[in-house]
Each structure stands twice: as structure tokens, then as C-alpha cells.
Amino acid sequence: MGIYIKDILCAMPAEDGEGYSVETHSIYVNKNKIAGIDEIPVGFTMTTTIDGKNRLLIPGLINSHAHNYMTLFRNCADDLGFDDWLFRHILPLEDQLTGEDTYWGSLLAIVEMIKSGTTCFCDMHMFINQTSRAVNASGIRAVLSRGLVGEDRHDKEALRRIDEAKEDMNLWKNHERMSFMLAPHAPYTCGEDYLKFIAEQAKELNCGINIHLSESKKEFDDMMASRKCTPTEFINSTGLFENKTIAAHCVQMTENDMQILAEKKVSVVTNPVSNMKLGNGFAPVPKMMAHGINVCLGTDGPASNNSLSMFHEMNHAALVHKGATLDAKAVTAEEVLAMATKNGAKALGLGDEIGEIKVGMKADLTVLNINREHFMPRTNLISALAYSTTCGDVDTVIIDGAVLMDKKELKTIDQEHVYYSVNKIAERLGLKR
After folding, report:
1. Which domains can be identified in the chain, with CATH numbers?
2. Is the Cβ–Cβ distance between 340 and 297 less than 8 Å?
3. What does the buried/exposed string (b/e) look like for 340-352 if buried means 16 or more CB atoms within 10 Å of the residue's CB?
4. Tell me, what's the pLDDT at 13?
């Protein structure tokens, strides 16, 4: 299949490698890759044309930390502190879920992500093969990880979870759009020996680590009281960071913590909306960037954010640090665009495949309708992506060379069926009011 995107404004890396430029180009997609920019590739056969008039092409957005099945808990545990939210509300609800429930919850999340321009996500889930089924059916790209909780390598339930993770990996190991990580949930839900065992397993499986880290002040204070070290120092001592690691949140950070993350090349996923909503504060993103840490962006789960919009997240990431540091240059529009695209790709081990509009990259692309009032006058469109773009501006989405949404019409998912299914689940869980 050949897609010709004609005369479209493109957000592409600037020629000097610093930041972005916006210029008009024609893009040629052959099979699942960007095969040409302005020059017709040899042997190209056009099957689809997208008119670029009044449109802006950006790399597909990458949500580097999510719990997609939690769409089922959207708007039902709000205005609560972190521990109250997690232990008294969310975990009891999770205990009532079936695998089929999480399939529909994941599919709902994918509907929302595609419609808001996200083409790849990293998920920490709890039922194997359900998110994978949803990814396979929908056409989106994903890095998946079954959440792991346990005390040590002799804990039967903890070992069962690792076996489930391996089963999911093996079942979908040859899938073009899926890859996998191991996901120890957090320092406060995993024992030291279990974490060391996971680190060993990740090395054997040649896969990365996906973990929550230093999300709340209580987590930080409890670790200091029990072990006389920070959560980051504790995780470093287990050997997890010897594997390629993404660490979500990282709100409570010392200078030594940031030095460890930089030295171990740990990527940090900041989740500003979730962190604010749960009263956890702000990750020190400007300081982490100054340390050379790769910072990317995620929404967290819809139970603690309520939205899976990466444009919403980009906007908050650009704004909150200006307010928190009293520095209007703390995090720029160009930096949050990088966080939501190429930095996320690097964190997920996909930096050579997605995250930028370049020849040879996978064709994961989002087309925005910029013939709207909040793009006028057309001055700095990179700034517009951070400060005025909305989900409603997403017009067309291409993932792995396939058009999954054309002029706002989803091509692979029956969204009405999804809506019906998740509402029935909410009724069963007693969440409908």
C-alpha cells in the first residue's frame, strides 16, 4: 500500500539538529515506512492520497506510561489522596475485574488514543493477553508489561506473575507492533529479593524494565525510615538499572537520585496531570534534563488522570514547571514535543523506528486540521502544539503504514460496541450513577 501525503506542513527536526522546523513537504509511505520525502521512491505505487491543505503532519504521539484498562474506573475515585485512591478504591475495584473486562477497557483507551493522535503507548497491565488482543485488533503500536508484585523468588504468586509475563511475550513475540518489558510495580510492592530476581530475568530475556518510582512523599519517607535510603537508591542496589529502564513519576528526587538515573541511562516518564491530581507534586523535570536524563511523557491511567490526551499532558508539562520554578523558560514547547515523540521512542527502545518524520522510519503519523480559530494567525505551529492544540484537531492517523483514522472516522474499531461493553461493565461493578 502506498500513501501519498501531498504538500503538507511537517513538524520535523531542524537541519542543525536543534529543535524543530515547520516546512511544506510531500511524504511517500510505502508499506509500513516513510519511503520518501519530496522525491517519489523507486517503484512507488500510490493507493491513497491525503491532501495536506490546511493540515499539519507530526510524528505520532507516544504515551510512555499508561494503565489502559483503568478507563473502566474513569471519574469514580476522584479528589482523593494517593494512598486513599489506590488502596481503598482502585485495588478493591481491580479485584472484581475479569480478563474480558480489561480487554474492553483497553480497547476504549485505544479508541481515545487514536482519536487524540497517539500512535504508540507503554502499558502496565494485570491480565495477560487482553491488552495484547486489543492492540492486535486495533492496529496501534504498544510496549506491554504485566505488573509484577511479590516478596521474593520463592513467592508462588509472584512467580506466577512472571510466568504470565513470559507467556504473553512468547505468544506475541513475532508481532510487528508489539514489544515487551518486565514491570515490577514499585519499591513498596516488591521485596528486595524479588526485584533482584526480576533484574536477572530481564537480562536473560533481553528485555527492559518498566517501574513506578518515587511517586509520592509517603513512598519516599517510608523508604528513608525503613532502609535509610531513597527509593531510587534502593532500586539501584537491586541491579534493576543494569537493564534498560523506564521509571514513571520520579516526583521525589534528590541530587544523588538524579545522578544515579543519569549514570544508569534510566529514562524518566513524567506524568504531570496524574501527579497533580493525586496531590503528589511535580517531578523536577528541568533539573533532570540538566543532568542529561532522557525525559518522556505519559498520561498514567485514566483513573488518576481521567484523560489519555497527550496534547493535554504536553500543555501541562510545558506550563507547570514554569509556575513551579518561576522560570518561563523552564520547559519549552519544543522540549515537550520531543518528550511526547522522539524521547518516548528512545525510552521504549524504538528510537530507530518511530518518533520523527524521516525516511526509513516507521510510518506512525498524525495529521492535524489547523484550519481552526486557535491556530490563527499561523505563526509558531510548534508553540501551538503545546499551548493551543486539542484532541479535536486530530484528523487522520497512520500507524505502521495503515490509515487507522481517516477524517475522524475510525477504520478498525466499532466504537459504539466498545461504548456499550464498557457501560455494561461499569453497571456490574456498581459504578454507574
Report:
1. 2-59+357-410 (2.30.40.10), 61-347 (3.20.20.140)
2. yes
3. bbbbbbbbbbbbe
4. 87
pLDDT tens digit sequence for 110-125: 999 999 999 999 999 9
Per-residue cell: 236: 539501584
Count Cβ neighbours within 10 Å for each residue of 87-113 and write b for 16 or more, e otherwise: eebbeebbeebeeebbbbbbbbbbbbb
pTM, to two decimals: 0.97
User: pLDDT for 210-255, tens place per residue?
Assistant: 999 999 999 999 999 999 999 999 999 999 999 999 999 999 999 9
At 160 the three-state DSSP class reads: helix
Measured from the Cβ of residue 154, the count of other Cβ atoms closer than 10 Å reads 11
Residue for grid cell 469514580: 76
Cβ-count burial 3-21 (b if 16+ within 10 Å, e if not): bbbbebbbbbbeeeeeebe
Q: In sequence order, what are the residues at sequence separation of 6 or more whose Cβ sits closer than 8 angstroms to the Cβ of residue 354? A: 59, 60, 62, 119, 120, 141, 345, 361, 362, 364
Distances (CA, A) of 380 to 27, 44, 301, 377, 393: 22, 33, 31, 9, 16
- What is the C-alpha R_g of the chain? 21
